[in-house]
Amino acid sequence: MRKVNIPASxxxxxxxxxxxxxxxxxxxxxxxxxxxxxxxxxxxxxxxxGERVLESLKSAGVEADIFVIEAGEDSKNPENLIExxxxxxxxxxxxxxxxxALGGGVITDLGGLCASLYQRGVALVQxxxxxxxxxxxxxxxxxAVNLKNGKNMFGTFYQPKAVICDPEVLSTLPDEEFSNGxxxxxxxxxxxxxxxxxxxxxxxxxxxxxxxxxxCVKIKRDYVxxxxxxxxxxxxxxxxxxVGHAIERESGFEVPHGSAVAAGMCIVARACAELDMCxxxxxxxxxxxxxxxxxxxxxxISAEELYSAATHDxxxxxxxxxxILIKDxxxxxxxxxxxxxxxxxxxxxxxxxx
Length: 354
Ligand SMILES: NC(=O)c1ccc[n+]([C@@H]2O[C@H](COP(=O)([O-])OP(=O)(O)OC[C@H]3O[C@@H](n4cnc5c(N)ncnc54)[C@H](O)[C@@H]3O)[C@@H](O)[C@H]2O)c1
Ligand SMILES: [Zn+2]
Fold this sequence. Notes:
By secondary structure, the chain is α/β, with parallel strands linked by helices. The chain folds into two domains: 2-172, Rossmann fold (3-Layer(aba) Sandwich); 175-353, Dehydroquinate synthase-like, alpha domain. The chain has helices at 24-31, 45-59, 78-90, 105-117, 131-137, 175-192, 194-201, 209-226, 241-250, 257-274, 280-292, 303-311, 314-317, 339-349; strands at 2-7, 11-16, 36-42, 63-69, 98-103, 123-128, 142-147, 150-157, 162-165, 320-328, 331-338. The strands form three sheets. A seven-stranded mixed β-sheet has the order 1-2-9-6-5-3-4, with helices on both faces. The protein is globular. Bound molecules: nicotinamide-adenine-dinucleotide and zinc ion. The site of zinc ion has 4 residues, from helix 10.
């Protein structure tokens, strides 16, 4: 079994292996030894995998129930958080018991927050079922729900006891959601190069998926452990995200996060090539990788609109913003700059502007 240790303020392992869903009970028993567990999941994932996880917990001698919320980002709200917490009370879950979050990033975020707040913190096991959740949201300890006026505005830092990735579950993930996860993986490959880049370049991604997940978890681990509370190096993980978030917002969230990040990364890469920071070949290969995995490389929203969407939040934070720029695969840097520089990046990087 692949195992990546995360030495955050509380240490834990990410386990990666096909078929692990049936071993959740044993792992939970060994690490937490709860009497009861509540699985939090969504309306797509629960019918597919809920029973398998409940059975595994029960055969390890753990009493287990499941709480299911409607699938989708709209469900990541305080109302569902409170509903989930009330369900834990209903089931008499105590501080020595366990919350299991089984689903994509919406569930790992909401379930994680629920576990961190319930009775001031109850043990949590994350079982990410989307590619994005496996390589991104379930590692690092950030939990949140959305508020009316801001995404991820209500959350905590809370590390799980374990993260259990079973790549088999990816067989039911819709193609578009798979591509969403790949966008973050391309981001890791640009930041670090190495094995993740090699696998993306190859034609054997499905055979190498466990290795790819392991590589990405290690990359995220390195950034997170260098900067658990997000004040410095963790910013590298925002590569493609300043422009990506602007695309998401301006499209009224019609463009999914992964697609927006892919386009954001390509815009930044082309601008970096224009400005002689990276080679034209590097920028072209980033585009090629996005195309290969069915991700967009540009946006039809104008540079002006993206600029105003991207700087909208910055008004309160003063005139400076951090952009992650590219020199080469495995060689990116944080550029603390003023807002006007972003305008230049957008002008230079958008194909639709050329
Ligand atoms: N905490 C963090 O550090 C962090 C990092 C990145 C993203 N996030 C959050 O993660 C969320 C996005 O995650 P996501 O893309 O996984 O979204 P998601 O949880 O909405 O999952 C995407 C869709 O795939 C379905 N799904 C998941 N696994 C499946 C499977 N195995 N088979 C069939 N369907 C499946 C879900 O039901 C959903 O419809 C956002 O809310 C984002 O803010 C958090
Ligand atoms: Zn992202």
